[in-house]
Amino acid sequence: MKRPTAEQPTGTETGPVASVRPKRRIVAKRPTGGSMLMLIALIVGVMILAPTVQRVISQRQEIAQIERDIQQANEDINRIKADNARWNDPAYVRAEARGRLLFVQPGDTTYVVIDSSRSKQVDVPADLSAEVHETKADPVALYVDSLIGADTAGAPHEPIDGKTDPNASTAPQGDQ
């Protein structure tokens, strides 16, 4: 580093040498026509590209969602294939038949467990006849009569839940 000489001011002197040096003024720069044109071009470019970039981003999100759906579908397909492969095993089929359909192998003893906590109700079988009988009514006519009856039926006089409507009037509709 050089040491200041007598001709070079150090900046801390207050004598005649310091007053000779002019102070720098900060000059505010005005925008030129070219810089304004570039700014306008930049703003227009952003305005033109913003919707396109937004579409690209939304398409990327849709693609990611579809890829996740495809992956889930492939996992489901693999699970279903594994289930189908299990049904090819006779032991699995036999176990499912015993569990779901209550099938019994010859020689097995079947036990029926009755829940003692439930009240004992005796199922009375319906009167069954050994004879087969046919109805003489026309099903289409019964259906049409049912539709007509449902259309012309009035509102029920008693509410279904058993509560009365305080706003309902008890006077006949035609006398008002």
Automatic annotation (TrEMBL):
The keyword Membrane is assigned to this record: yes
Pfam families per the UniProt record, alphabetical: DivIC
Compositional bias per record (Polar residues), positions renumbered to this chain: 166-176
Name used for this protein in its record: Septum formation initiator family protein
Coiled-coil ranges per UniProt: 56-83
Region (Disordered): 152-176
Statement: the UniProt record of this protein carries the keyword Transport: no
Record key words, sorted: Coiled coil, Membrane, Transmembrane, Transmembrane helix
Residues passing through the membrane, by range: 33-53
Species of provenance: Gulosibacter bifidus
